[in-house]
């Protein structure tokens, strides 16, 4: 893999020129940024920025004004190669809060192991309806310790209005959901994104996560996708490296919380 070429393609296709990728989504390009604007339960934020040092602070302030005028919290997703170099410090000064950094990791689909089966006693169940979304949300809340309500609404929206844009799966131990993950497709690009891979604590270390990578990689291969992309946590990064993923950059989300709505 030519790391520089793949990173440049990722920036160009996914961050700069991404088409609307969900129901009601707007991709807007203004004042040196590319932003995604969607419903409050969906992801809202800045995908790309190329700012001048002399005007960066005003550009940041303009994005704060835009999203908060819509009553939306939002995320400014930075990468290690973004300009200006002190963008993270400027975001913190503007009232953003940094979340944990992740590794941007990419693999060629044709080079990934596609035959990794789930461990004994585990079956993989495609998520296609509200019951499947409920199971997936249950796993998310147990695995990550965060509320999965917005994720559930977002996924159900996708399955209802754009089912070809996502494939989700839950790993079941009998009738109990113990792990889940999804893959999101970006038509017209070389990339599909792997998201949400999480396993409840007592089932970790048994190979379920690796089997979900292979399951989604097989779907990507069937659709002719060239690259898989993951924003990897410290826990998943070593597994992905062993499977053949390459780390291209570090990405850090900076979140700006919209002020609470004023009572009438």
TrEMBL record:
One of its GO terms (molecular function) is acyltransferase activity, transferring groups other than amino-acyl groups. Residues 122-262 form the N-acetyltransferase domain. Keywords: Transferase. This is GNAT family N-acetyltransferase. It comes from Streptomyces typhae.
């Amino acid at each position: 893999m030519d790391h520089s070429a793949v990173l440049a393609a990722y920036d160009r296709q996914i961050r700069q020129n991404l088409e609307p990728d969900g129901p009601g989504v707007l991709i807007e390009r203004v004042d040196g940024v590319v932003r995604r604007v969607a419903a409050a339960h969906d992801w809202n934020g800045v995908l790309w920025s190329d700012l001048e040092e002399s005007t960066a602070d005003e550009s940041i302030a303009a994005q704060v004004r835009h999203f908060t005028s819509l009553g939306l919290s939002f995320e400014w997703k930075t990468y290690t190669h973004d300009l200006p170099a002190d963008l993270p410090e400027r975001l913190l000064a503007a009232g953003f809060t940094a979340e944990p950094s992740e590794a941007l990791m990419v693999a060629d689909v044709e080079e990934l192991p596609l035959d990794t089966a789930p461990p004994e006693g585990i079956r993989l169940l495609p998520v296609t309806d509200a019951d499947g979304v409920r199971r997936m949300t249950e796993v998310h809340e147990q695995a990550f310790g965060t509320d999965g309500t917005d994720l559930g609404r977002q996924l159900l929206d996708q399955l209802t209005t754009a089912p070809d844009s996502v494939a989700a799966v839950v790993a079941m131990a009998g009738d109990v959901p113990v792990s889940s993950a999804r893959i999101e497709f970006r038509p017209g690009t070389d990339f599909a994104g792997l998201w949400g891979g999480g396993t409840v604590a007592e089932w970790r270390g048994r190979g379920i996560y690796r089997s979900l990578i292979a399951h989604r990689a097989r779907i990507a291969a069937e659709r002719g996708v060239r690259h898989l992309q993951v924003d990897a946590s410290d826990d998943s990064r070593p597994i992905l490296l062993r499977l053949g993923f390459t780390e291209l950059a570090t990405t850090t989300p900076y979140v700006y919380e919209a002020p609470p709505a004023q009572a009438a």
